[in-house]
Specification:
alpha+beta, 6-stranded antiparallel β-sheet, Thiol Ester Dehydrase, Chain A, single chain, globular
Length: 138
Amino acid sequence: MTDPTSPDHYRFWIDEHVRFADLDTLGHVNNNAIGVYFEQARVLLFREASGFGAESPWTVVLARSLIEYKAELLYPADIRVGVRVLKVGNSSVALAVGVFQGDRCIATQEAVCVIVDRAAHRPTPAPDDLRAVLARFQ
């Protein structure tokens, strides 16, 4: 498998930008803001697969998150966030996510998301149509 600090590792991309509100007292992007960039990429990936809509019978919750910070990020900046599907289990999806400024890796995340039935609030098997969309990003 490719290096998660390389843009070539990722298959799904979104564009983001650093907001002044993302900064900490040292003037660099706070770790919480980086977590929001990761979240936005995950949400848009699952929206691509018809999730997170009110009409969808399932939603996704984050069950595990391991973040490694690689470089400082300052304001202002345009960034890209990449996602790669690592594994689709019965009701879980493992993802690799990376924040990049140009080709420079700012942070990486290993995330495990669980597919949840909206009505029952319990894990549910990943639907076939979701699996088909996620397979495009492996």
